[in-house]
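Quick one: structure for this chain?
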Amino acid sequence: MEFSVLMSVYYKEKPEFLAQSLESVLQQTSKPSEIVLVKDGPLTEGLEEVLRNVDKENPGLFRFVPLSENVGLGKALARGVQECSHELIARMDTDDIAVSDRFERQLKEFEQNPQLDICGSHIKEFEDDINHTTGARKVPIYDADIKEYQKRRDAFNHMTVMYKKSKVLAAGNYQHALLMEDSLLWVNMIMIGANCKNIDDYLVFARADSSMIERRGGFSYFLKYRQGRKCIRETGYISAVDYYYTLLVQLVVSLIPVGVRKRVFRSLLRSSVK
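Got it. Here's what it folds into:
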């Protein structure tokens, strides 16, 4: 079964992380038919060197989509979706690491259920070494549970999903929504009847250092969060109770001291892993 892998890279990313991520894609038990990689604005020489090397070693596999300026992940991925040649598209972040049979297992789900539109999985989080994970994010497995969960928190881990291009485009593709381009896409797909599933396993190791938690704080972050949630509320998918509940929780999390936020994040928003 043919499928595309969709990635987006920008100048602040580290070449070594990009190389590790691409290696995990290239070593899959089910090989992608193409890798569409959006260059979200001019890149550093280090990143360009990584891309030149993998392109040379895998002739014809990569399709690079250069953008003249940095437009942000949502707009970059919207362009990337349009550039993908195949109906099935697997998302992958350029600093995460996929387990070797991730694509094989997701393809089997689409083969077994032709009505399936989007399939993700749990993630394990790490800082420097995937053998030393710091937490995990589990998501609901079945369609009805996913659709209920999505009202207050993301029911998919974005970097794990494989979806149908036709359904993504029918839902309006990625749209501008601060911090929540993927959240808005899931809602829009659900609202046009998308059939959803998550595999009950950890198929991606997601890089999540302590600075990630620090960035998710402060009143300015809360204002961006509120704007994104407002976009989702305007779809009609969530109720006023859902909207104000999530704003209240995020306001508290944003304003508490960084040390307390880290403990809350690890203890309440993530599962422990061995």
